[in-house]
Amino acid sequence: MKLDFYKPLxxxxxxYIQGYYFISESQDSELLHYWTFPNNYTILSIHQNAKTEFQxxxxxxxxxxxxxxxxxxxxxxxxxxxxxxxxxxxxxxxYFKPLGIQKFMHPDIGFIxxxxxxxFTPFSDFEEVMHHLFSxxxxxxxxxxxxxxxxxxxREKDVSFIQNILDDVEAGLKIEEIAEKYSxxxxxxSKLFKENMGKTLSEYKKIHQFRSTLKKNMKVKNxxxxxxxxxxxxxxxxxxxxxxLTQIKPTAFFTKVDIEKENIWLYI
Length: 268
Fold this sequence. Notes:
With 268 residues, this protein is of the alpha+beta class. Helix content is 38%, strand content 20%. The chain has a five-stranded antiparallel sheet with strand order 1-2-9-4-7. A five-stranded mixed sheet has the order 5-6-8-3-10, with no helix packed on it. Strand 5 and strand 6 form a beta hairpin.
């Protein structure tokens, strides 16, 4: 089995979706087994005739005889997760950029606070279209149908305020500074952020810093400099946060993991 990863072709989707990958049950190569590390994407995994079992820091995907579509929406995880495939299955997994899924869900995404593993059905025609998509043998036609389907669900929605807060968080502003900037209390900013992002502001910031270090490590080899470049208090703070997210120290991580891979949220 292998992941066939694609960037959206449509310019609208490019703005809100980082990319998506396909897995086919017809593949007869070695089964997938990999680790995935925390990120700030909203991840939608769609399976046909499969069961996804969520264990402690582990996801096991197996095949079933049920002729149905299941979908898992993963919004929040703060530790590395082991993913094990016990059989080849039909799957499409989409990585929505932060706030990106908001543009396709209507009315507002109240589901974001819920645990919807396996039974997430965003639209009335979702299962029918996904069954049809998986029946198509030609990958390019699958991509065309898949992208057209999401384009048909796109709705322009004003999320500029929470986007401004998101930009401030990524720029390194403290919550006190953000609250003062918009004349709101810290509690209101925190509540608004979690309602829209599905995770706390501090969780988002910690993951954002971690992801930034992966990109900058290709240019910065010294851990002290890497910590400074990503707004950590010091090297010990950097190592502590890094271990919380990956379960290993930065030096070991960068030795084992090829961070130059395009899909940096996933490492085989």
